[in-house]
Amino acid sequence: xxxxxxxxxxxxxxxxxxxxxxxxxxxxxxxxxxxxxxxxxxxxxxxxxxxxxxxxxxxxxxxxxxxxxxxxxxxxxxxxxxxxxxxxxxxxxxxxxxxxxxxxxxxxxxxxxxxxxxxxxxxxxxxxxxxxxxxxxxxxxxxxxxxxxxxxxxxxxxxxxxxxxxxxxxxxxxxxxxxxxxxxxxxxxxxxxxxxxxxxxxxxxxxxxxxxxxxxxxxxxxxxxxxxxxxxxxxxxxxxxxxx
Length: 244
What we know:
With 244 residues, this protein is an alpha/beta fold. Helix content is 39%, strand content 18%.
């Protein structure tokens, strides 16, 4: 699509980070470049520092200095992926909202495939192969897919990878869970209203620095605690929507 001033949309991109000093600068620089291509006149880069204890915070502050489009959220302790996403989503003010990890495994250039998002649409990138996963991570992926497909009825190929939401839809979800299952809650609620889903194949890059954190005990435990709450909340939401 040829972008003109008439059809450009505004974008918020959230970069969430925990101890990513070896790669975060590259991620932030690339993301800022992509934002300028998507929406040069109006955009925002929201950085969520989820309680980093290495040099990540120093790098973030140096990068953000003098850049009015950069906003920094800093957690005083590591809270996990869910709270990091929620903090970013709550601050986002532009039309399209996307959250990406600071570890560089998602190439933000892929967002250029969909610079203009139709109203009430979720753009969902998916990883066709997860050969980089450990057996334990593959088991967690299977359990998560069972939860999403069979209990919540979310027919999305990869709920836990990169999404682009319309901010109007995102702000209407009134999130109940606080774990990494927040993406499942958003998708379940938004798609209840027959919103459009566009799925795009994504490259899944290697983890370039440190250890992957997506399958840490803390994150897994938080999700396990939230499963029943998520199910109850989605069922309540759908029942309430049916009555309107």
